[in-house]
Amino acid sequence: MANYIKRDIYLQKLVNRMNNGEVKVITGPRRSGKSWLLSRIFKDYLQSNGVDEKNIIIVSFDTDEEIYGDLTDHQALKSFLYSRITSSETNYYVILDEVQEVDGFERIVNGLNAKENVDVYVTGSNSHFLSSDIRTIFRGRSDEIRVYPFSFNEFCTDRTEPVTELWKEYYTYGGMPGLLRQRTPEQKVAYLQRLWNKTYLDDVVERNGVKDKVALSTLADALCSSIGSLTNPHRISNILKSVQHTAIDPNTVGKYIGYLEDAFLFEGAKRFNIKGNKYFDSIKKYYAVDVGLRAAKLNFRQQEPSHIMENVIYNELRLQGYTVDVGLVESREKRDGKLAYIQYEVDFIASNGIDRFYIQSAFELGSEEKRQQELNSLLKIPDSFKKIVIVGTDIAPYIDNKGIHYMGLFQFLRSGLQ
Question: Angle at which helices 201-208 and 250-262 pack, to 10 degrees?
Fold first, then answer.
């Protein structure tokens, strides 16, 4: 079997969903490895478990090659696929890569999925039909798997350098799989900037009919600059006007942010009032899907280790299957002789439906005052779910006398929260 980064966390998700009667929808940004996951890793798994190659039908619409003719034509694709499914006595695995390029693809996919011996997998890089509309398009019979660029753990596969050196490389250039073919820093920078300018922005502009590409690019810069900061379209509009001298009204800002999220370039974490048990409308923190792409968009000008660490922690939590919110704890306290409501921020609330974790990202704890600042919000939370401080230095995990858990960044990235 070929020697490559196996991406076991995604392979296991695929294996767990095999032949479950639902369309497996694999989403994520372009060039994040979705095609490789299915056409190489998953295909190798199927063949190693006895599936004949002729029963694995793969069609990619993200290439200029027309091996079987122009299969973006609905009828041509349907005819081709059904000509390959020749028996009702054996299972077939149909993989359609970047299927959104085919008009009317949903009718073909639903038809294939209705066959008991056909297991269907589709990928897409734009979530317009894979998120809000997914239940309608696939008639409620779909199962989404989100793919991210390489995690730090995947990035370290077969690498022998000290972990601190690997971390420097990762937080500078990120985990886009295509970087494995780029040997020098100059090549890596050029590759990441090409992705932004020639792949992502052009794709967003074309798909959504954006008339002002410069404004869209400026907005992307603003999101990259403000990772980990609470914001909303009105605030971003004001920043663009005062700092960038770019006038984009809040409605357009909100619409453009939606386009960038649909392209899986950013994710927004909603703000949640822990004691009040409610969300705040419109206020979010935005995180880049990859810290290297974020750095490239800013021409590597803003390399703040604390913000980058927070972004990497967010992405790792999402990769591990958690839903992630940012938390707020309100406490009534006496300040300057008067009672006032004080707000404390919790970096992340991570939940998988069974467990919940409250997490603070602390690049370094330093003085006792700094340590207390990190702990205040966690100590104000009135429940018994696990509270964790992830520290940028490589420390041995421990629990303090207040029940707060501490772990080093590398331990978290290698072993998770458990």
Answer: 110
Q: How far apart are CA 232 and CA 345, in angstroms?
A: 17
Distance, CA of 208 to CA of 255 (rounded, Å): 10
Identity (one letter) of the amino acid at 101? E
Q: Are strands 386-391 and 405-408 parallel, antiparallel or unpaired?
A: parallel
In 3D space, the residue among 148, 127, 124, 123 whose CA is nearest the CA of residue 289 turns out to be 148
Between CA 156 and CA 228 the distance in angstroms is 25
Is 306 in a helix, a strand, or coil?
helix
**C-alpha dihedral (416, 37, 267, 355), degrees to nearest 10:** -30
State pLDDT tens for residues 206-235: 889 999 999 999 999 999 999 989 999 998
Contact 271, 279 (CB under 8 A): yes
Q: What is the CATH number of domain 8-146?
A: 3.40.50.300
Helices (H), 360-418: 368-379, 409-415
Q: Is 322 strand, coil or helix?
A: coil
Hey, how many other C-beta atoms are within 10 angstroms of the C-beta on 146?
20
| Cβ–Cβ under 8 Å, residues 33 and 41 | no
d(CA 349, CA 278): 13
Backbone φ and ψ of 5, nearest 5°: -70, 115
| Residue 167 to residue 161: CA distance in whole angstroms | 10
DSSP annotation string for 123-188: EES-GGGTTTTHHHHTTT-EEEEE--SPPHHHHTTT--S-HHHHHHHHHHH---GGGGG--SHHHH
Q: How many CB atoms lie within 10 A of CB 183?
A: 9
SS3 12: helix
Give the position of tokens 């779910």.
385
pLDDT in tens, 132-178: 556 567 767 888 899 999 999 999 999 999 999 999 999 999 999 99
Instruction: Compute the distance between CA of residue 279 and CA of residue 328 in angstroms, rounded to an integer.
Output: 10
| Contacts for 308 with CB less than 8 Å, ≥ 6 apart | 171, 291
DSSP string, 13-50: HHHHHTTSSSEEEEE--TTSSHHHIIIIIIHHHHHHTT
